[in-house]
């Protein structure tokens, strides 16, 4: 027993020498995960859809870490294959995958466009499965790996005007458990991060509406919206050796939002 205790060190939380793929990390919450990994010692490979990569490149380079990019559409099977092949060419391995990329469109259920439903399900749910499936085959050969899926407070509840997003985020939790069950024997751990309401540029207009802002804030026991750095420690933990026996679980980073009625 003493040997088990003595071998633990803070190096368990280090990502030095690791390579992480974070989808959609050129903006939003994905940028926080990617920067956290760089600060912990990892190099990054970033599949992205939109053009602007300047900020995330500067942030990761400032940590003295490498970052490479590949632009495309995660609903395209050929692009997903190239994501995997490109990372292997660049770094020789894939230690961590974060399925962060996602979209949402708000509309009333009875008027929700079929095209928007399909787009959201394809990106927020189907691409998570297919990209993970491709990368799991690499991790199986390595005999190790970490898959981190990104859920939401809406993985456990529902809200109006976002039906496919809610359905997809519920599905991500089920998928996380499936991956954990299927891949655990290969020393691959799969878990989910479920962010609540975080103050970001994307929701700036929503937060400017006192009615909406106060409604949400009153339901958060900590009485504040989260900040990006509230996510970063959990991401590093789930990507690191420190979480080697954590498999198939979701961690809500929501200030207690989902504990309330």
TrEMBL record:
Organism: Propionispira arboris
Family matches, as InterPro entries: NAD(P)-bd_dom_sf, Sc_DH/Rdtase_CS, SDR_fam
Protein's name in the database: 2-deoxy-D-gluconate 3-dehydrogenase
GO biological process, one term: bile acid metabolic process
Keyword Iron: no
Pfam families: adh_short_C2 (PF13561)
Phylogenetic classification of the source organism: Bacteria, Bacillati, Bacillota, Negativicutes, Selenomonadales
Entry similarity comment: Belongs to the short-chain dehydrogenases/reductases (SDR) family.
A single MF term (Gene Ontology): oxidoreductase activity, acting on the CH-OH group of donors, NAD or NADP as acceptor
Keyword hit for ATP-binding: no
Keywords recorded for this protein, A-Z: Oxidoreductase
């Amino acid at each position: 027993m003493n040997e088990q205790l003595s071998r633990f060190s803070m190096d368990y939380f280090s990502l030095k020498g690791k390579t992480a793929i974070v989808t959609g990390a050129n903006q939003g919450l994905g940028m926080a995960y990617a920067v956290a990994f760089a600060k912990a010692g990892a190099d990054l490979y970033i599949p992205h859809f939109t053009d602007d990569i300047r900020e995330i490149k500067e942030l990761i380079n400032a940590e003295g870490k490498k970052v490479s990019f590949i632009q495309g559409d995660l609903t395209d099977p050929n692009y997903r294959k190239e994501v995997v092949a490109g990372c292997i060419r660049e770094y020789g391995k894939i230690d961590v995958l974060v399925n962060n990329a996602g979209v949402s469109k708000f509309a009333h259920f009875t008027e929700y466009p079929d095209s928007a439903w399909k787009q959201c399900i394809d990106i927020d749910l189907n691409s998570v499965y297919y990209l993970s499936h491709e990368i799991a085959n690499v991790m199986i050969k390595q005999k190790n790996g970490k898959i981190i899926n990104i859920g939401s407070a809406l993985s456990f509840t529902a809200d109006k005007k976002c039906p496919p997003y809610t359905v997809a985020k519920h599905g991500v939790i089920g998928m996380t458990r499936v991956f954990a069950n299927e891949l655990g024997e290969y020393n691959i751990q799969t878990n989910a991060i479920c962010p609540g309401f975080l103050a970001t540029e994307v929701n700036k207009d929503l937060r400017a509406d006192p009615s909406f802002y106060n409604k949400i804030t009153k339901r958060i026991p900590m009485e504040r919206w989260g900040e990006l750095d509230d996510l970063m420690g959990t991401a590093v933990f789930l990507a690191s050796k420190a979480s080697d026996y954590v498999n198939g679980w979701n961690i809500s980073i929501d200030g207690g939002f989902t504990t309330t009625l």
